[in-house]
Amino acid sequence: MSKPLIKLENVSMVFEIHPMFGEKKKIKAVENVSLEIKENDILALVGESGCGKSTLGRIMLGLLKPTSGKVLYYINGKYKDIWSLSKKEYKVFRRNAQLIPQNPYTTINPMRNVISALIPPFLHYKIARNKEEAKKMVAEHLKMVGLAPPEDFFNRYSCRLSGGQLQRIAIARAISVKPKFIVADEAVSMLDASLRIEILDLLLRIREEYGLAVLFITHDLAIARYFARKNKIAIMYLGNIVEMGNTEDIIKNPLHPYTKALIMSVPIPDPDIARKRGLPKLRSLEVPSLVNPPSGCKFHTRCPLATEICQKQAPALRNINGRLVACHKIGDIDSK
Amino acid sequence: MVGRLRTLEKILFEHIYIPLKILAKDKRALFGLFMLIAYILISLIGPMIIPLDLTPNLEERYLPPSWKHPLGTDFAGRDILAQLVHGGRDVLTAAFAAGIVTVGIGTVIGIIAGYMGGKIDTVITALIDIFLTIPGFPLLMVIAAWLLQSGIPINILTIAFVLSITSWAGLARAVRAQTLSIKNEEFIEVDKCLGLSKLYIIFYEILPNLMPYIAMNFMLSSVSAIYSYTGLMALGLIPLTPGNWGAMINMAQAYVGTITGAGATYILAPSFAIILLQISLVFLANGIDKIFNPRLREW
Question: What is the nearest CA distance from A251 to chain B, expressed in angstroms?
Answer without folding.
Answer: 32
